[in-house]
Amino acid sequence: MPDGVLLVDKPAGVTSHDVVAKIRRGLPKGTKVGHAGTLDPFATGLLLILVGRATRVQRFLMGLPKRYETVARLGYTSTTGDPEGEIEPGDMPGEFELPTGIITQRPPAYSAIKIGGKRAYALARAGETVEIPERQVFLARFDCEWREEDRAAFVIECSSGTYVRSLIMELRDAYCVELRRTRIGDFEVADASEERMLSLDEALHFLPLVQLEGGDAEKASHGVAVPGSAHGTVRLHDEAGLIALAEPRDGDLLKPVVGFRA
């Protein structure tokens, strides 16, 4: 069974699940396939498709920062914050005040967040009132690239969990007409190819590497903590390659939390 990560440039009009299903059909039966961060159907851009044992590291890839390019329509509102909602005329925004740093944001009602076990967008479409708790996110960059009549383009670099639709809706009044994810961590949409699968090591290159030998390597392959110190998650290696991902524990130990030898 193959293991690794595919960089896919998702087209508009399909869901992230559709992309996963397409990739799965081209792989041996029984291969696990997932993704690391949903894109809305109208959005395009970089989607990380996880194949085989790469599905075990989803949370580490989902936590990477993102870069988006978006075009907003000004002077109108959308119930969903995108072209798929109910569009109403509103007020034309004045000079933009674009925040950076840590901000508090409320995700849109039409989002994939689960509330009481159900997706928020399903509740909203059923006419139910959806109250999603606010969250803190980090904006490293929020720049207006151009503004012409009722359109404006923005570049946003942000932490995982940031909703670009909400950022644009908060400009009063505006909504996204185009949204493209161009980067996830160090992965660029320009490098997307369904023909080349990144190895687990390549996909996890942003995690520090700890080399093990002999008995320690054997212990780690069975999930047993080994001597070592770190400030976060690391890759454990031996001469044969990747053994596991490990996290620091008291007593200068590294405890495997995701194994790749079983």
UniProtKB/TrEMBL annotation:
<dbReference type="GO" id="GO:0160148">
    <property type="term" value="F:tRNA pseudouridine(55) synthase activity"/>
</dbReference>
<keyword id="KW-0819">tRNA processing</keyword>
<protein>
    <recommendedName>
        <fullName>tRNA pseudouridine synthase B</fullName>
        <ecNumber>5.4.99.25</ecNumber>
    </recommendedName>
</protein>
<feature type="active site" description="Nucleophile">
    <location>
        <position position="40"/>
    </location>
</feature>
<dbReference type="GO" id="GO:1990481">
    <property type="term" value="P:mRNA pseudouridine synthesis"/>
</dbReference>
<comment type="function">
    <text>Responsible for synthesis of pseudouridine from uracil-55 in the psi GC loop of transfer RNAs.</text>
</comment>
<dbReference type="InterPro" id="IPR014780">
    <property type="entry name" value="tRNA_psdUridine_synth_TruB"/>
</dbReference>
<feature type="domain" description="Pseudouridine synthase II N-terminal">
    <location>
        <begin position="29"/>
        <end position="164"/>
    </location>
</feature>
<keyword id="KW-0413">Isomerase</keyword>
<comment type="similarity">
    <text>Belongs to the pseudouridine synthase TruB family. Type 1 subfamily.</text>
</comment>
<dbReference type="InterPro" id="IPR020103">
    <property type="entry name" value="PsdUridine_synth_cat_dom_sf"/>
</dbReference>
<dbReference type="Pfam" id="PF01509">
    <property type="entry name" value="TruB_N"/>
</dbReference>
<dbReference type="GO" id="GO:0003723">
    <property type="term" value="F:RNA binding"/>
</dbReference>
<dbReference type="GO" id="GO:0031119">
    <property type="term" value="P:tRNA pseudouridine synthesis"/>
</dbReference>
<dbReference type="InterPro" id="IPR002501">
    <property type="entry name" value="PsdUridine_synth_N"/>
</dbReference>
